Amino acid sequence: WTEHRASLKERFPEGWNPPRKISREAMNALRLFHQQDPEQFSVPMLAAKFLISPEAVRRILRSRWQPTGER
Length: 71
Hints:
mainly alpha, 4 helices, Required for respiratory growth protein 9, mitochondrial, NGRN/Rrg9
């Protein structure tokens, strides 16, 4: 875990701030595609389709955060 954290700190010294961001609806669609068929909708294919980095796709798929209903 500490090695992984150190490698991320080396790759992203200022922290994670992707240059291209996608909407919440696009994130949900990305998760749905990957959930339906992980072989066909792999991380590199989803990154190319949504025009974001593979690291961003991995973070979206791993994330479980949901916005609260207060808005």
